[in-house]
Amino acid sequence: MTAETTEAAEPAGSRGGTGDTGSPGSPGSAGKKAAALGPRALARRRRRASAARFWKEYRKHRAGVFGLAALVLFALVALTAPLTVGSDVDSVTDAPGQPLQGPSGHFPLGTDQFGRNLLGLLVWGSRVSLLVGLLAAVLSVAIGALIGVTAGHFRGWYATVMMRVTDWFLVMPTLVLAIALATVLSRSLGTIVLAIGVTTWPTTARLVRAQTLAVESRPYIERAKALGGGHWHVMSRHVLPNVMPLVLAQTTLIISSAILAEATLAFLGLGDPTVVSWGGLLQDAREAGAVSSGDWWYLVPPGIAIAVVALAFTLCGRAVEAVLNPRLGVAR
Q: CA–CA separation, 268 vs 243, rounded Å?
């Protein structure tokens, strides 16, 4: 046997000790480390790497970073409200000022019709507005994702019925339906969340169903079914992880609409009169005649707060959508 034949017949790892016993940075060493990890540890490692890649791409969007910074600021203000303004800021009997005082050193944003500090009310109202917006958006996305995934998976008569119901909700004015629900049910924050959540899900359902149809056309779905995977296994293990990026982006976009809807319902007098919210402050200003009397400090701050938070969530949603958009198509 010639020298060339002998060398070719040798295992790849026996030459120079560069195979299984390679350097720590070699591919073989990395494969050993990955094999040494358990399934859960490997999954956590992959999730951390994916989160790091997501944040790296997200930081490239300046508008998204600005929106995230604004949301963090508002969240800190809302969480620290009991410490900064106190829980009795909405008390009418212990109002510290005179009715409708203009901005001053003691009251930077003036007072309302009862003499309460408007800055404190604005800070305290952020808790209700943000909470209602988040809960309503989560409820809306949950309903839309459930209907979208199931309608895209089961097809047939079920999909036809669900899509016709979705179309009916799409053509009906969302605000009118929300007003009708808020009028029939008791006036509370739960009613506002329910009214917004059950009237804003159709767009999410349409988007999720389209993505579900795209995912279920891939070959690995057919292999999973051929290996005995049932409906729940296919939807929970294969379809849902692939539509979650779309659901996440849709959630951030719906939150801004939910906050605006809550402010609208509160402004129309359909909110809970016992709690302070930004929309409720606008309703109080309208009832006090702030528009005709020129008391701008009663109207402008709540309106600016609503607009800034809605814009911040929209910027974050657009940034998330831009980062995750390459992962939403059929081809990866």
A: 36
CA distances, 220 to each of 99, 110, 238, 267 (Å): 68, 63, 9, 51
Under a CB-based contact definition with an 8 Å cutoff, are residues 253 and 322 in contact? no
The string of pLDDT tens digits covering residues 104-145 is 888 898 888 888 999 999 999 899 888 988 999 899 999 999
- Closest listed residue to residue 277, CA positions, set 121, 133, 117: 121
Q: Taking the C-alpha atoms of 174, 199, 234 and 226 in order, what is their torsion angle to the nearest 10 degrees? A: -60
Question: How many other CB atoms sit within 10 Å of the CB of residue 52?
Answer: 10
Q: How far is CA 310 from CA 67, 140, 155, 182, 236, in A?
A: 9, 17, 36, 22, 32
